[in-house]
Amino acid sequence: MLMRITRYANGRLNHTEPLQSLLYSEFVSHMDENVSTPATKLADGFEYYSRKEKGQEYAVHCRRSKSEAPQVWLNENELAMGSQTIWVAFTSLKDPYRLHLLSFGLYSAFSKLPDYSIRS
Q1: What is the 3-state secondary structure (H, E, C) of 28-50?
Q2: Do 54 and 94 have their domain in common?
Q3: What digits encode the pLDDT tens for the residues 37-68?
Q4: Three-state DSSP class for residue 51
Q5: What's the predicted TM-score (pTM) here?
Q6: Which domain holds residue 53?
Q7: With contact defined as beta carbons under 8 Å apart, do 110 and 1 qualify?
Q8: Interatomic CA distance for residues 77 and 2, integer angstroms
């Protein structure tokens, strides 16, 4: 049903695509695309932060320690391949064995429930 509604809406708004592109370009031109969040240190000893890269729609989540170079922990742009829209929600995870796990839920377009994943 939602797919039918989306097709109908896209068909009705097809003539506005040049204006939509122009507005999107205008909005993006006023945003700083190379942005990073402050790092947060967790109990596993890593500092976690997110950054946006120029030309990318979604965030890249990284972690770093004092002895290692920063690592890409989760790249939302790779997760979004082949999907119209995604939304990543992080959750806390009890980690009694100190495995350094973080969990996240991934909502994609038209999904009612998230797909949960765990990364170490």
Answers
A1: HHCCCCCCECCCEECCCCCEEEE
A2: yes
A3: 898 888 778 888 889 888 888 888 888 988 88
A4: strand
A5: 0.61
A6: 33-119
A7: no
A8: 24
